[in-house]
Amino acid sequence: MLEVISKERNLKQNKIEEMKSISSIEEAYTRLVEYSIDGYSSISKEDKSFFLKCFGIFDKGENDFMLRVRIPAGRLSAYQALAVGEIAREYGEDYIDLTTRMQLELRNLKIQDLPTVLMKLEDVGITTYQTGVDNFRGIVTDMLDGVAKDGEIECFPYVQAFQEVFLKKEEWIGTLPRKFNTAILGCRENRANIFGHDCAFALAQKEGIQGFNVYLGGRVGVQAQSANVFVKNKDEAVLFFHSLIKVFKRYGFRDNRNKNRLHFFIEAVGLSAVLDAVFTEAKYDFESAGTTLVAYENTLQDHRSIQLNDGSFACKLQVLTGIFTGSAMIEAANSALREGNGELRIGFDQNLYVLGVPKENVNDLLATELFTHYGSDSIFHRGLIACAGTEQCSFGVIPNKPDAMAMADALAHRFP
Predict the structure, then answer these.
(1) 318 within 8 A of 351, measured Cβ to Cβ
(2) Distance between CA atoms of 409 and 407, rounded to whole angstroms?
(3) pLDDT of 354-401, one tens digit each?
(4) CA–CA separation, 186 vs 232, rounded Å?
(5) Residue-wise over 244-283: b if at least 16 C-beta within 10 A, else e?
(6) Rounded to the nearest 10 degrees, what angle do helices 271-282 and 262-269 cross at?
(7) Which of 193, 238, 191, 243 is nearest to 212 (CA)?
(8) pLDDT at residue 107, as a whole number
(9) Nearest to 143 by CA among 203, 96, 75
(10) Would you state the pLDDT for residue 1?
């Protein structure tokens, strides 16, 4: 049945699928140098519409580009943060957006500078590959993964293993039917919006063994449903993930782009048919689900400083709706080198965390100009998130970020 429905839905393919057959996606990356020399007007329509987006390069019109940057699990070293801040300040009008996928976006870039910007990012171990259109977006986890007091399984090794499957692999660049969002969470509080992804691995326990229950088919406004699958280690998780994306790539719908996500594929063919195909692809019988341990709350959003498992603290910059600057990123990086352990984290809450701050330094750090500017005691500012809105996103229908901040400010004033 899965093959029959897939064939029926793919008889007529959408324009993007037709566009994919025009040329190699990797060739678009090499054309960037030519475009940077020949100018904005030389960029082909196909590259603007699809191919360059596979590398996170989004045309906003009139030689104005947004660059989506992959930050695995939101982890930034201070030296990477310094590089990002300097790039934003020199090439992007000092603007940075922190996103709910624990990534960052640079804006106001020019085509003549893009090859240099990409090279500078790669030089510090940061890539923009596969951050847009029909690709695997940044994998979301707990922003305090591996250091949280309530963390039970460190998920960063899983994130790295998932990325190893697809990142910079030509067979996977831009070849999915639609974008694919993944999350994995190894703590009991929901610090990853864990049930809102195409594929999610949520902390679980079965017969005394801790692992992850799998949830599938989440998207905006829709929670993922249980796949009744338990994976007890990294090898099983990677095997399930790899098998699932092979099935989605092979049978997923390529007709109506509004309904080409995994959610609609499951809705059309049935979850059992999808799982049968995954099990067959994997040549492995995964165990049935255990008990999910993840709750829905996130109590840490109420704190500016959070004690970590080694006794040090994470200090939070409250970056309302993710609007940040290169200059502030440089200051945060220097704070991480001076007061912390040299590591920063971007959270799914669009905030930035400086890690490894000794207890005796916390109050002094929170009193600095940077942390005072990006700080608020109001419950209406804590955890405030918002997508880009009409000013920055072609899919936006309202301004959104200024609306969200105006609402939070008004509520904070009315209910102090």
Answers:
(1) yes
(2) 5
(3) 999 999 999 999 999 999 999 988 989 988 999 888 887 777 888 899
(4) 12
(5) bbebbeebbbbbebeebbbbbbbebbebebbbebbbebbe
(6) 110
(7) 238
(8) 97
(9) 75
(10) 78
Burial 154-182 (b: 16+ CB within 10 A, else e): bbbebbeebbeebbeeeebbbebbbbbbb
Strands 225-231 and 291-292, sheet pairing: unpaired
**On the CB side of 382, how many CA atoms lie within 13 Å of its CA?**
12
Show contacts of 218-226: CB within 8 Å, 24+ apart: 218/181, 218/263, 219/181, 219/261, 219/263, 220/196, 222/196, 222/263, 223/195, 223/196, 224/195, 224/196, 224/197, 224/198, 224/199, 224/200, 225/266, 225/271, 226/289, 226/292
What would the pLDDT profile of 287-315 be if each residue is shown by its tens digit?
A: 999 999 998 778 888 889 999 999 999 99
Burial of 368 (0-12, 13-18, 19+ CB in 10 A): middle
- pLDDT bracket for residue 48 (50, 70, 90): very high
pTM: 0.96
Q: Pick from 407, 376, 383, 379: which is nearest to 190 by CA? A: 383
The residue to which tokens 């989506």 are assigned: 68
**CB of 174 closer than 8 Å to CB of 25:** yes
* pLDDT (0 to 100) of residue 228: 98
What number of other Cβ atoms are within 10 A of residue 50's Cβ? 21
In degrees rounded to 5, what are phi and psi of residue 121? Answer: -65, -45
59, two tokens: 């045309």
Classify strands 313-317 and 305-307 as parallel, antiparallel or unpaired. Answer: antiparallel
At 105, which helix (H) or strand (E)?
strand 104-109
Helix axes 262-269, 2-9, angle to 10 degrees: 120
In 3D space, the residue among 328, 372, 376, 369 whose CA is nearest the CA of residue 352 turns out to be 328
